[in-house]
Design goal:
With 258 residues, the chain is an alpha+beta fold. The protein is built from seven helices and 15 strands. The two termini are 21 Å apart. The relative contact order is 0.20.
């Protein structure tokens, strides 16, 4: 893993596949105030011109044209879409997959998991946004299946999870753990007792890793970066709520075949 003040964080497993990628932090952009400085969220209340410039800088890092950095309209779904060119209107889904050089795939997050996928043998990449709902309902598996439609093989797919809310920062209520255990009793292992009675600490990165392992992915890198606990580098929705801030920026994680 590498980082400097103006560049995104990278994952060594993805670097080894030869793809361009970046888990962008909040450093290196033009946004101000709550959004300082590399806010990639078009859904935020930030100046749209600042967000556009920030995304242009991200695309430049990926070595793709700005209009070719594709980010969906995320709706916490289990849906993945295969793309090969810029879209006129952002599709409502939470993962994108491509085998087309020059196309960058991105997802945004501010606590949710941002996952990048690469099959270097098949030349297929993917990006997925996985909050608790998307991870539980199957966005990870849908991304892998879409990659396979383009010729990828699970034995060759490398996956990295970027900044996400960590297990020491994500407190949930009893109804939350009940929802998970209704799907599989074994999911209890991703919850630990909280200091607050009747509440639990949820390990979202661990759950994502568990789903990937169950899906047959053998090479997975969790960068173990807690968005909530690191306000200097990362935006966090939950932190913004606890601080009673008016809004929050969005991180971008992206990947491209060049």
């Amino acid at each position: 893993m590498t980082q400097d003040a103006a560049a995104p964080i990278s994952a060594s497993l993805l670097e080894a596949t030869g793809v361009r990628h970046g888990f962008f932090t909040r450093a290196g952009g033009v946004s101000a105030g709550l959004y300082a400085s590399l806010n990639g969220g078009v859904g935020s209340k930030d100046d749209p011109r600042s967000v556009a410039e920030n995304r242009r800088r991200m695309a430049a890092h990926l070595q793709v044209d700005a209009e070719c950095l594709l980010v969906p309209y995320q709706v916490h779904s289990p849906d993945a879409l295969i793309v090969s060119a810029p879209f006129a209107e952002r599709p409502r889904c939470d993962a994108l997959v491509t085998s087309t050089p020059g196309v960058g795939l991105g997802v945004t997050g501010a606590d949710c998991g941002m996952i990048l996928f690469s099959d270097p043998k098949a030349g297929v990449i993917g990006a997925a946004h996985a909050g608790w709902k998307g991870a539980l309902t199957g966005v990870i598996e849908a991304t892998l299946e879409a990659m396979e439609q383009l010729g990828a093989e699970r034995a060759s797919i490398v996956v990295a999870l970027g900044p996400a809310i960590g297990p020491e920062s994500y407190e949930v209520g009893p109804e939350f753990i009940e929802r998970f255990c209704a799907q599989a009793r074994d999911y209890e292992r991703f919850f630990a007792a909280s200091s607050r009675a009747g509440h639990f600490m949820f390990d979202l990165p661990g759950f994502i890793g568990g789903r990937l392992q169950a899906a047959g992915i053998e090479r997975f890198q969790n960068l173990a970066l807690d968005t909530y606990a690191d306000p200097e580098r990362f935006y966090s929705y939950r932190r913004s709520v606890h601080r009673q801030e008016a809004d929050y920026g969005r991180l971008v994680s992206a990947i491209a075949l060049v």
